[in-house]
Amino acid sequence: MAFADAPSRPSDAARFDSALRARVRQARNEFLSGSPRPDLGGVSSEIYTSWVRSRQLGVDAGSADVPLNPLSVTHARRLVDAATPVMKNLADQCKDSDAWGMLLDRECVQVFPLVGDARVVREGEQRGGGLGATFQEAVVGTNGAGISAERLESFLVVGEEHFREAEHNLASVGVPLRDPYGRMAGVLLMCQRLSSANHMIVPYTQTLAVAIEKQLALATSGDERALFEAFARHSRRPSLAVVGISEDVYIANNAAQQLLRDGADTDALREAVLAVADGGRSRLMTLAFEEERYRVHCRIVELSAGRSGVVASLSRVVAPPMLTPGRPAAPTPAVDPVARAKELGFPVLVSGEPGSGRARRVHSVASPAELDAAVAASDGAAWMAQCRELVGRGDVLIRHLDALPAILRPGVLELVRTGAHWVAATVESVSPELETTFPVAVPVLPLRERTADLPALVESLLAELGAARIRRTPEVMSILARYPWPGNVAQLRRLLAGILVRLEGDAISIDDLPREIASSGRRNLGEGLLARTERELVFDALREANWNRDAAAKTLGISRATMYRRIRQFGFQIPSSR
Q: Membrane-spanning regions, if any (predicted)?
């Protein structure tokens, strides 16, 4: 079965069936042996995609160790405090059973001791479980916590679905834990030996997660809500870096996280912004991050007990041009958001209608290698391999990203997030799924809404077609500006190419335009069949008469005055020499 044809997820109950587990075991063995087309009967697309990611990230399928991460519980203290009563109650429920639970932070690092029967806890600790143990998919492969954190939803992994053989005797389910603002705070991971496990472990774990989230809500202060609401109001533009800071809270959107990758920069910003909060007045200031200067607009948020928080937006300061004595400064050109995104290393989405020039917009500031997501469904594995190769080698433009099969999206988005090179992509519309990976979105208007760009665009397209010296009469440009261009820039390019292969002189005139474009004029959207037919008759008569109004009127049997009225009514452009 091809990569793109992996089946949808079987029901949770069905996945415990011994016959289905045997098929999953066979599929895993074929996958690990390098079979180009493993039989994926019984393997869900989510599990197979996780296997692919695990292998790409170098996870050892034969290892049984649980690696440790340097643990800092500071960022998870609120989660731990809220979950403690629930976890203690779980410990009582797990006595004399072979089930156990773990509280993980949002990086899938364990922040609370193992909870379960003393014998099970002892065995888990011998394998490396305990504070600081990490269950990220990139480290231990397919497991309930890793997929849950990747997909931001509850997820069950049964037996042989685990990437590592050491977990094949377990069922593991991860449930994301969210704070009152919808942000992921951590993951609750429940495990149980398959000999006694069944699908009811999923709703049981979800019930525990709801109890922890309620405790998180009770622990949330009014000050936090006030700061987060102000932060949300100022974060509506995804390309603008925004942070919310108080003595107890730090919030940053994707653009700010991309900018403040160095912990020292984050600390410097926090210190400077808290000083503004102490002053109690909004202000502008300038800070330097990685040799770049940024203007920081700090807005005060009033909190309780006379305290203040700050919502700060950051924008790069462009150095002014050097001035020559005695000469006025040239006007500063408008900042190109695509160029700025490339300069800062932010992945960028260019959205717009098909044919509107989305790829051209990217190529105007860069020369990336191109990859078309619309063809990925034919051979997903080969397409992914090419994507990894291109992203690892240089800048990449992924065209039609919204046409990418759903099974491939997690892997591609992970490459975009972790790749060393700049990635741009074109889409018809920006979805929430893509917003989390692409902090910058740049819309491209359809050609009908930017007719002011038409002369420069026609000139550029003619140059691309090797006809830079070909002239356009004023009437032609007027007609092109009135046409609605349902096919956008792509249609305009095809039109010019068709004209050039038939052109005899060195100028494009009305006679060189197709009738449906040359006769477009000022069309009435409610124009009926009779009016449309009259329009076409008048236009054809004018063209046949070499644009002589009197001769065309005579051909149609109408007066000269009526012909002039029809020309004005239909908005026809007549060559100035006529």
A: none
The answer to whether domain 337-444 has CATH 3.40.50.300 is: yes
Q: Where are the alpha helices (DSSP H) in 160-221?
A: 201-218
Q: Cα–Cα distance between 73 and 104 in angstroms, integer?
A: 11
Residue 479's nearest CA partner among 549, 564, 573 is 573
pTM of the model: 0.48
CA distance 469 to 449: 27
Residue type, 264: A
Q: β-pairing, 170-178 with 155-158?
A: antiparallel
How many whole angstroms separate alpha carbon 414 and alpha carbon 356? Answer: 28
| Structure confidence by residue, pLDDT tens digits, 391-426 | 888 899 999 999 999 899 899 998 888 877 899 999
Residues 6 or more apart in contact with residue 39 via CB below 8 angstroms? 1, 23, 26, 27, 30
Contact 171, 159 (CB under 8 A): yes
Q: Which of 239, 172, 284 is nearest to 435 (CA)?
A: 239
Give the CATH fold of the 452-570 domain: Helicase, Ruva Protein; domain 3 (1.10.8)
Angle at the Cα of 284 from the Cα atoms of 281 and 289, rounded to 5 degrees = 125
From residue 248, how far is each of 78, 224, 344, 575 by CA, in Å? 11, 8, 29, 72
C-beta separation of 171 from 191 below 8 A: yes
Nearest Cα residue to 496 out of 465, 474, 453: 465
Structure confidence by residue, pLDDT tens digits, 25-46: 999 999 998 887 777 778 888 8
Q: CATH fold of 226-316, please?
A: Beta-Lactamase (3.30.450)
How far is the first Cα of the chain from the last one, in angstroms, to the nearest whole number?
A: 67
In our burial notation (b when 16+ CB lie closer than 10 A, e otherwise), range 188-200 reads bbbbbebeebebe
Domain 1-220 has CATH 3.40.50.150: no
In angstroms, the CA 462 to CA 468 distance is: 5
